[in-house]
Specification:
The structure holds 2 protein chains of 2 kinds.
Chain A (H helix, E strand, L loop, with lengths): L3 H16 L6 H23 L15 H32 L7 H27 L5 H16 L7 H17 L4 H24 L1
Chain B lengths: L11 H12 L3 E2 H8 L3 H13 L3 E8 L2 E8 L1 H22 L1
The chains are: A mainly alpha, B alpha+beta.
Keywords (chain A): Membrane, Transmembrane, Transmembrane helix
Organism (chain B): Algoriphagus sanaruensis
InterPro entries (chain B): ArsR-like_HTH, WH-like_DNA-bd_sf, WH_DNA-bd_dom, WH_DNA-bd_sf
Chain lengths: ~200, ~100
Amino acid sequence: MKKPEQELAEIKAMMERSTRFISLSGLSGVLAGIYALIGSGMVWYWIYAPATEFGKNLESLGTRELINRTLLTGFIVLILTLSSAYLLSQKKSKKTATKFWSPSSRRFLSTLFIPVISGGLFSFALIHEGYFHLIAASTLVFYGLGLINAAHFTLNEIKNLGYGQLILGLIAAFHPEYGLICWALGFGILHIIYGSMMYYKYD
Amino acid sequence: MKGNYDKAFENVVRLRIMSILMVNEQFDFNSFKELLDVTDGNLASHLRNLENQGYIQVEKSFVGRKPQTNYSSTQEGKSAFQRHLEFLENLIKENKT
């Protein structure tokens, strides 16, 4: 018989590896934050510059062209984020010799993306109905809920990131004039902080 | 001494299988194979061993046209594993004092 300490460690490791997706790369969080900051900087420029007062130009959000440009920026940010998260996490799972596509990663992704996809569709409904000022709030809230939901199946710290996004989303819901700022703080700054913390801790 | 050292979990593959089934409601054959990195025959014989002891149960189904074999732990298996854990913990405690 092996030492009981070793045996318990073995049991714990198997329980973790079979339920948790541990290959999420911290670096991809930092990159996601940088993309989001660049994107929101561009949108800020289109909406507010040269006037710098918040909430003044909100009515200009109604123009077709601006909405299309903002949506396109959002999509580019999303695609860049997803592809760098995919590539970096796959690299990490190779390094740690764990399977990237496993029951635990599938569970993680489905718990994360069910709220996120419904949030995306909900945001389209908001655009369709003309409630442009609530889009930042709704994307933040749904993303936060998705993260809190998915935290059961990956490293636990992601829960705090989720709470942060949720709080910023609720602030943006009550103060739509700060929506873009909240969005930049949530998707940009919080991702960078969280990603670098994870990078130093686990990578 | 509390708990009971269970011979069924003496083998490391069986210990791992049971650990996985304690925290997952179901786990299928191929996922076991991926995670444990063992051969088909080896895995199958350990699974059968646990099944014969009444610690796990098997459920065969089809996903599309592919057969899938799902395993889950029985109540008996869970309490046996719990007793095994208690035994290990007590052993550690006693060695400390």
